[in-house]
């Protein structure tokens, strides 16, 4: 399940003045094993309570990546893995050719 969707649901719980434990329980009920872990839920809840908005770079922070990477890799076929690797390699080459100043969309 998308972490963006879960972030929106956490913000909704903050607006409803749900406690951290209520928020976590609601996410567990809605998403089961695909729900965010306790530390991630509490971290995002704190951010929303402080009025912070997620930046594009925050959408998948390191905790989210570490948490979701094994499942994503298991779900990826060998062919799909090869295709993603080749895409990554092409991006890497562009970055090297541009002296490290390449970013997507250029």
Write the layout of secondary structure elements.
Layout (H helix, E strand, L loop, with lengths): L2 H13 L4 H12 L6 H12 L12 H14 L2 H20 L9
Helix pairs in contact: 1-3
- The CATH topology of the largest domain is given as Arc Repressor Mutant, subunit A
Count of domain modules: 2
* Number of separate helices: 5
Report the sheet with the most strands, covering strand number, pairing sense and barrel closure: none
CATH classification, class level of the largest domain: Mainly Alpha
Order of helices and strands: HHHHH
Q: How far apart, in Å, are the first and last alpha carbons?
A: 30 Å
**In total, how many beta strands?**
0
What is the percent of helical residues? 55-70%
Question: What is the residue-averaged pLDDT?
Answer: 81
The shape, in one word, is: elongated
Low-pLDDT stretches:
none
Pairing-aware structural class of the strands and helices?
mainly alpha
Beta content comes to under 5%
Our Rg estimate from Cα atoms comes to 17 Å
Any idea what the CATH architecture of the largest domain is? Orthogonal Bundle
Protein name: Mos1 transposase HTH domain-containing protein
